[in-house]
Specification:
By secondary structure, this protein is of the alpha/beta class. About 20% of the residues lie in helices and about 35% in strands.
């Protein structure tokens, strides 16, 4: 893609990849960023008793050998935008068959602080209508030159050159339990995708005098309340007497079937609407570089 200048642009969503897209385009263009939920989306940062933590168990890791070279590029760019990273001190395992080489635990809170300072137009509003006609794009009736969508979105009405397009998305709600402990001995786990019977993705984070656990609840246990999740967990029930506070976060994730997504990509090729891959960070970053060299 050629360099983009002097365009009125809309970006939908504030996941880290969409924020990195914003920083690439902001210098020479006028940009509105639409976010109907929390800043960061599935990568958002929250606080429990004043301590920062990531709410939804996402990590930045290469899943193929040819993706490893992007880790250093990602680290450098994130550091320039105010993020920090550490090496995992405990077990780090994913369900991938690939043996990861460069492993880090990232704190993206600085990215959001920098974004809020530098973003001139963050619109807290849901996009319900998307229309493209003669190389112009309209979001909720507002005209733009270019529009960028994440690969997961929920827009009910899409019309391209007077043709209504199928964009059906399915709502998936993930549950993530955060537990704050007194500083006691806990399993030496920095990140895992197979924690125990109740949680799949999970991590322990040592911070000051407390320890934070966050785990994604397996489907079978989604109806359990926080205390019951602790009691049902093979590992956490052994630590239940040291719990300081519990917090359950739910993330509303809109998933579009791959066949529908492929059709949308084909249709968007004739417009100034661009789909940005956001489902796997390193792969998404690789595509972002190719899109905007």
């Amino acid at each position: 893609m050629t360099e983009i200048k002097n365009k009125k642009i809309a970006i939908i969503g504030t996941s880290p990849i969409m924020i990195l897209l914003y920083f690439r385009l902001m210098k020479n263009n006028s940009i509105d960023v639409f976010e109907n939920s929390n800043l960061g989306g599935a990568w958002r940062i929250d606080k429990i008793n004043g301590q920062k933590y990531t709410t939804h168990n996402n990590v930045i890791v290469a899943l193929k050998k040819n993706e490893e070279k992007y880790i250093n590029l990602i680290n450098k760019e994130l550091e320039n935008l105010g993020c920090t990273k550490i090496r995992p001190s405990g077990i780090y395992e994913t369900l991938s068959n690939y043996n990861h080489k460069n492993l880090f635990i990232h704190d993206l809170s600085g990215l959001y602080v920098t974004f809020k300072k530098r973003c001139n137009s963050l619109i807290k509003k849901k996009v319900s209508k998307l229309k493209a006609y003669k190389k112009k794009v309209y979001l909720n009736g507002i005209e733009y030159d270019h529009v960028y969508l994440p690969s997961c979105f929920d827009i009910k009405k899409i019309n391209l050159d007077n043709e209504n397009i199928n964009s059906v998305s399915n709502l998936s709600i993930s549950h993530h339990l955060t537990v704050l402990y007194d500083k006691i001995k806990v399993p030496n786990i920095s990140y895992t995708e197979n924690f125990d019977n109740v949680f799949d993705r999970a991590y322990f984070k040592k911070d000051n005098k407390k320890i934070i656990f966050t785990g994604r609840v397996r489907r079978k246990y989604k109806k359990f309340k926080p205390n019951k999740l602790i009691e049902a967990s093979n590992l956490l029930q052994k630590l239940k007497n040291y719990v300081v506070r519990l917090k359950l976060n739910k993330y509303h994730h809109y998933i579009i079937d791959d066949n529908i997504l492929d059709n949308l990509k084909y249709k968007f090729n004739k417009t100034n609407i661009f789909l940005i891959e956001t489902r796997q960070f390193v792969y998404s970053y690789k595509l972002l570089i190719k899109l905007l060299k």
